[in-house]
Amino acid sequence: MKNYSAISEFVLLGLPIEPRIQAVFFVLFLLIYLLTLMGNFLMLLMIRADFHLHTPMYFFLGQLSFLDLCHSSVTVPKMLENLLSESKTIFVESCLAQAFFVFATGGTEACLLAVMAYDRYVAISCPLLYGQLMNKQLCAGLVWGSWSLAFVDALINILLAASLDYCEDQTIPHFSCELSSLFPLSCSDTSPNFTLLLCSSVLHFFGTFIMIVSSYARIVSTILSISSTSGRSKAFSTCSSHLTTVILFYGSGFLSYLLPTSGSPLEMVFSLQYSVVTPMLNPLIYSLQNKEVRAALRRMFRKYFHPLL
Length: 309
Description:
single chain, mainly alpha, disordered N terminus, receptor, transmembrane
């Protein structure tokens, strides 16, 4: 039997696309990736440069943009390479590293979205005490806690996966390496891995989802207690961008992970939505639905580009 040391590469089958149109999809996904980089870099620059955006909400939004940059950069470059390559191989160590960073960045984003939901709850329920309650120390602690929890969780799962013997079919029916797609390739007992991954998913992803639902239940209760219609509309508008991001992240994320790892077109669509499209859409969502971001974008344009015109 082969073991882990004998196998040096896996084969990523990638997207089920006919070879004659792979170049078209390469251009499409390259454009999406470049828009993701440009949009999230612009959001980071704008939040850092404009003092009007130096608030907890935009501090968390900057972290979300950084996460989107990281998450898309973990999966998209390799996918683009495989669209133009015939071998479509990836070293075992690189595959484990990619699976680690996919799990870690996805877990951090889940925690961060829960933190942002709590931030919106505090802003709407206690507007006069918002600055005191969401101080810099608390915001930094919540962000560091999100990163630390996700990376420790990912590290434990990857270390257990790295101890497996991979001696079965080396083909992964996906465009990226994920933990659930590695287990069928092993001839070792993977039940501890599945159990650990299930517990991590329940505690991490479903736990943060429950926290978000709880925060929004309190937000809705607070909004309904506001007497004026304009006050209700203004309070809800501060949450609309975050709520849209939550729906995109958890909707596509849950569906892609709940579907079996078979390489079916439906599974690929949800995985692409989760890994490729959502990181590009988040800056657009916040810039189109948020008046302060649009105003900051106009100020930055006048400051840096208007003198050149």
